Amino acid sequence: FYTYNNFIAATKYYPTFGSSGSLDVQKRELAAYFANVKQETGTLQYIREINRNNVYCDTSRGIPCPAGTKAYYGRGPLQLTWNYNYDAAGKAFNMNLLQNPDQVAQNGVLSWRSSVWFWMQNSNCHTAITQNQGFGATIRAINGGQECGKGSETQPAQNRINYYKDFCSQLGVSPGGNLGC
Predict the structure, then answer these.
(1) Is 162 exposed, middle or buried, given 0-12, 13-18 or 19+ CB atoms closer than 10 A?
(2) Per residue in 54-93, pLDDT tens?
(3) Can you tell me the distance from the alpha carbon of 35 to that of 90, in angstroms, rounded to the nearest whole number?
(4) Is 29 a catalytic residue?
């Protein structure tokens, strides 16, 4: 499901992903993206969130949760979550992901594409890395409500940092500053 070819096909929709700024910035962006993917998917094991009991429906933004629709729990490499994210991604892809969020877990290219879309368009992760805000900004954007502001790094946040440092080392680039929440 999480294949190299599906990933490359998905990134073609976002030509600035992993290609903005200096070579070091590009490497940091790829390291940051894959560190978060590694944490979210349990090293590419999970296509769907383990705990599927949460519905993740917030209608306060004017986005409904259609009757009979499956819950908006996390799916894909960055675990796309919440009805409003499925709606926005669906609109970007000209698909109805609000009515059928499970499409993200059924199509490998769409799954990678939803994560790169979130990274580039909806979460400011791309901007955080390319404007030298540090890896910690990506943690806050992806899962900050659960992993940040606890007085010290939670284990999932520390995992992300460790994965990021490891990917940076493999790519031959320093991780930069501001690594934690």
Answers:
(1) middle
(2) 899 999 999 999 888 779 999 999 999 999 999 999 999 9
(3) 25
(4) no
What structural domains and CATH numbers belong to the chain? 4-45+112-171 (1.10.530.10)
Q: Which residue shows structure tokens 């991780």? A: 175
Q: How far is CA 135 from CA 21, 25, 77, 98, in A?
A: 16, 11, 17, 30
Structure tokens, 19: 């290609």
Q: Which of 40, 49, 147, 153 is catalytic?
A: 40
In angstroms, rounded to a whole number, what is the distance separating the alpha carbons of residues 23 and 21? 7
Among the listed residues 35, 49, 74, 27, the one whose alpha carbon sits nearest the alpha carbon of residue 173? 27
* 173, 31 contact by CB (below 8 A): yes
Q: Could you tell me which of 47, 28, 14 has the C-alpha nearest to residue 164?
A: 28
Q: Which residues contact 137 (CB under 8 A, 6 or more apart)?
A: 124, 125, 128, 129, 178
Amino acid at residue number 83: N
